[in-house]
Design brief:
- The complex is a heterodimer of chains A (267) and B (322).
- With 267 residues, chain A is an alpha/beta fold.
- In chain A, 30% of the residues lie in helices and 28% in strands.
- Chain A has a single domain (2-224), classed as 3-Layer(aba) Sandwich (Rossmann fold).
- In chain A, the strands form two sheets. A nine-stranded mixed beta sheet of chain A has the order 9-8-7-10-6-1-4-5-11. In chain A, strands 2-3 form a two-stranded antiparallel ribbon.
- Chain A starts with a strand and ends with a helix.
- By secondary structure, chain B is an alpha/beta fold.
- In chain B, 27% of the residues lie in helices and 29% in strands.
- In chain B, the strands form two sheets. Chain B has a nine-stranded mixed beta sheet, sandwiched between helices. In chain B, strands 12-11-13-14-15 form a five-stranded parallel beta sheet.
- In chain B, helix 5 (217-230) packs parallel to helix 9.
- The chains are: A alpha/beta (267), B alpha/beta (322).
- Chains A and B meet through helix 6, strand 7, strand 9, strand 12 and strand 13 of A and helix 3, helix 4, strand 5, strand 6 and strand 7 of B.
- Strand 9 of chain A pairs antiparallel with strand 10 of chain B.
C-alpha cells in the first residue's frame, strides 16, 4: 500500500505572535519552524495504515528548503519511509488561498498511491482546504474531518467523519482516496533518539515546482497571483471592563456575583 | 466580470442559516443580485424556506441530487462544481463551518477560484475584494486581497448585528436536477449528533465549562450537577478532553465547537486563544480562576479570583437558578 502524507512547516504560533517578520515569512528561523500541529495526526494515521497493511509512507512538503528539510526529517524520525521536498523557487509564494495549491501538491511524483492524507487544517492560515483541493485536482473522492478509522481485513477503511452537528460513517472501497484527519482522531507517537539521529542522515528527494510532471508553471503563477496577503497584524483587542470578585478575601464573592448577574438580567 | 450576482450556497435549508448568509450579502454587497443555491433533501424544509425567503432574494435554485438523502461534503462539492461550471468568474458565499469549508474548497478547486475560509468584512476595492481572516488560530489577523477578475469562494462568519433584508424582490424559483454521480459507501450512515429538542451546546442560553483547574475527572463531573440546577449545557476545554475527563463532543474552541450562549461560565479555564476563539460570540463571559493573571480575565465581563471547584460547590449549594 502506498500512502502519501502532506505536511506543512509552520512558524510556532507562540513565536509568530511575538515576531511578525517570522509570521510573514520575511525572516526565517529554523528553530521557530515546526510541523503543523494538525499534521501530526495525519502522519500517525499514515503510519498506522502502513503497520496494518504493510506498505510505504511518503511525506511531501512544499515550501522553502530550510523549512521542508527540517520537518521532513522530523517525519522520518517517526517512521515515515521517504521525504519529498517541493521547493517553490518558481514563485514568490504559493498560498493556500489559491486553488493552485492542490494542483501542485497532487503532482508529487509518487506512483500508485492508495491514500493521500492531510491534517485537518494548518495552524498558520487555518484555511482547512488542502484535502479537498488535492481531491479536486486528482478528481477522486475525499473524506473530510476523519475522527475514527477502522481497518478492515479487505484493506477497505471504515471512516467516521465528525462535524459540529453531525457525523458520517461508511466503508470506503474506492482508491485512491483523499482523507483529512481530525486532530482528535489519534495520539501521535514520539520519535526515539536513535530514529532522530538516523533521520538526520537520511537523503530527501527534491523537486522544484517546475520539475513536476505536466505542470504549467505560468498558469499556476497567474492563478496564485490572484490572491495575496496584504496585511498581517495583531488583532485589536477591545479592552473590557471586568467586574471582579475575589474569593480569597471576600467569602461572599459567589453570592455577590450571582446577585450582580441577576440584577443585569444575565441570569 | 460576471459578478453583478452573488451566489449564496447553502448545504441545509435551515432558515436561520440561510438568513445569516443573506444578512452578510445584504450588509456587504447591497448592490448585487442575490441567488440562493440550496441543497436540502427534506421537502418540508424546502417549502418552509420558499415561504420564508419569498421576495428577499432574486432567485433560488434548489439542487436535487438523485440518490443523496443527506449532505455529504464530497458529493455536494462535486455537484456544486457542476452547477457553477458555466458561470463566468462567480462570487460565491457559504456560511463558515467545518462542514462547509470542505465543500467550499472543492468548489474553488473545481472552478479554479480563489478561496478564503472563515472571513469577515469583505470590501470591494476597485477590481479587488479584500477580506479579513484570523491567522495562527486567532493570534494574528490577516487581510487577503482577491482579484475579482477570477472566481472567488468565501466562507463567511455571521454578522454581530442584525441587518434588514429587502422584501420587494421578485423571487424566481427553479428546481435543478444535478447529474453528479453519487459515490457514497453502501453502508453509509449520517447522524445528527445534536438534537434540537435536548439542551446542548448549540442551543443552551447558559453554558458551564470546565478546564484543567478542576483538577480531576470527579472535579469536572460536578459541573453536570450545576448544569442541571442552572438549566445549562456543559462544555470543556481541550486539556479536559485530552485527559479523558469529558467526551470530545463537549470541546469548545479551535478544535471543537464555536458557541454563542447568552452567558458562558469558564471554571478553571486559563483562556488560550485556541479556546477563546470558540466563545467569541458569547454575550457575557464569567471567568472563575485561581490565577488572577489568567488570560481569560481579559475577555471576561465578570470574574471571580478563587478556586473553581469551591465556586462550583457554592453555586450548587445555593441552588442558583436561571
Amino acid at each position: 500500500m502506498n500512502i502519501v502524507v502532506y505536511i506543512k512547516a509552520v512558524v510556532d504560533p507562540d513565536k509568530a505572535k511575538n515576531d511578525l517578520d517570522l509570521a510573514k515569512g520575511t525572516k526565517e528561523d529554523k528553530l521557530a519552524l515546526i510541523i503543523n500541529p494538525y499534521d501530526k495526526q495525519a502522519i500517525e494515521a499514515a503510519l498506522q495504515l502502513k503497520e496494518k497493511y504493510t506498505g510505504k509512507v511518503t511525506a511531501v512538503s512544499l515550501g522553502s528548503d530550510l523549512a521542508t528539510d527540517k520537518i521532513l526529517r522530523d517525519a522520518l524520525s517517526l517512521g515515515v519511509d521517504e521525504g519529498i521536498q517541493i521547493s517553490n523557487d518558481d514563485f514568490e509564494s504559493l498560498s493556500s488561498y489559491s486553488p493552485a495549491l492542490g494542483t501542485v501538491l497532487a503532482k508529487a511524483p509518487v506512483d500508485d498511491v492508495d491514500y493521500y492524507i492531510t491534517g485537518r487544517e494548518a495552524g498558520d492560515d487555518n484555511q482547512s482546504i488542502t484535502g479537498a483541493s488535492i481531491a479536486a485536482a486528482l478528481d477522486v473522492d475525499f473524506v473530510d474531518n476523519v475522527d475514527e478509522v477502522e481497518y478492515n481485513d479487505d484493506e477497505t477503511l471504515t471512516l467516521t467523519s465528525r462535524w459540529d452537528k453531525s457525523e458520517l460513517k461508511g466503508t470506503y472501497k474506492q482508491k485512491p482516496l483523499v482523507l483529512s484527519i481530525k486532530d482528535t482522531a489519534n495520539t501521535p507517537r514520539l520519535p526515539s533518539f536513535k530514529a532522530k539521529m538516523q533521520a538526520k542522515k537520511a537523503t530527501l528527494k527534491h523537486f522544484k515546482v517546475s520539475d513536476l510532471p505536466d505542470i504549467d508553471v505560468a498558469r499556476i503563477k497567474a492563478i496564485a497571483d490572484r490572491a495575496t496577503t496584504i496585511n498581517l497584524a495583531k488583532p485589536e483587542v477591545a479592552s473590557k471592563e471586568t467586574v471582579l470578585f475575589n474569593l480569597n478575601d471576600d467569602e461572599n464573592a459567589v453570592s455577590e456575583l450571582v446577585a450582580d448577574l441577576k440584577k443585569h438580567s444575565i441570569l | 466580470m460576471g459578478q453583478d450576482t452573488i451566489y449564496l450556497v447553502t448545504t441545509t435549508g435551515d432558515t436561520a442559516d440561510v438568513e445569516a448568509l443573506q444578512a452578510v450579502a445584504q450588509a456587504n454587497f447591497p448592490e448585487k443580485q442575490t441567488r440562493l443555491v440550496v441543497f436540502e433533501s427534506n421537502a418540508d424544509k424546502v417549502e418552509n424556506l420558499k415561504t420564508k425567503t419569498a421576495n428577499t432574494v432574486d432567485a433560488i435554485d434548489f439542487l436535487a441530487i438523485s440518490g443523496l438523502d443527506y449532505p455529504d461534503p464530497n458529493v455536494l462539492g462535486k455537484a456544486f462544481v457542476a452547477y457553477f461550471k458555466n458561470v463566468d468568474t462567480p462570487l460565491i458565499l457559504l456560511n463558515s463551518s467545518r462542514f462547509n469549508n470542505a465543500v467550499a474548497a472543492r468548489i474553488a478547486a473545481g472552478l479554479t477560484a480563489s478561496i478564503v475560509t472563515d472571513i469577515e468584512q469583505p470590501t470591494i476595492d476597485g477590481t479587488n475584494l479584500i477580506v479579513s481572516k484570523k491567522g495562527y488560530s486567532g493570534e494574528l489577523k490577516r487581510q487577503v486581497q482577491l482579484d475579482m477578475n477570477g472566481g472567488i469562494v468565501l466562507t463567511v462568519n455571521p454578522l454581530k448585528d442584525p441587518v434588514k433584508l429587502p422584501t420587494d424582490k421578485d423571487t424566481v424559483v427553479q428546481n435543478i436536477a444535478s447529474e453528479v454521480v453519487v459515490t457514497l459507501p453502501e453502508d453509509a450512515t449520517y447522524t445528527l449528533t445534536t438534537n434540537d429538542q435536548d439542551l446542548n451546546l448549540d442551543n443552551a442560553e447558559v453554558v458551564v465549562a470546565g478546564g484543567r483547574g478542576l483538577k480531576s475527572e470527579a472535579g469536572f463531573k460536578e459541573l453536570y450537577q450545576l448544569g442541571k440546577i442552572m438549566n445549562a449545557a456543559v462544555g470543556a476545554s481541550r486539556p479536559v478532553v485530552d485527559s479523558g475527563w469529558a467526551d470530545s463532543s463537549l470541546m469548545i474552541g479551535q478544535s471543537g465547537k464555536s458557541i454563542s450562549p447568552k452567558v458562558y461560565f469558564a471554571f478553571g479555564i486559563s483562556g488560550t486563544v485556541q479556546h477563546t476563539i470558540g466563545i467569541e460570540n458569547a454575550k457575557c463571559i464569567v471567568a472563575i480562576n485561581s490565577d488572577k493573571d489568567a488570560p481569560i480575565f481579559k475577555l471576561a465581563d465578570y470574574g471571580i479570583i478563587g478556586d473553581a471547584k469551591a465556586v462550583i460547590q457554592q453555586l450548587v449549594t445555593s441552588k442558583v437558578s436561571n
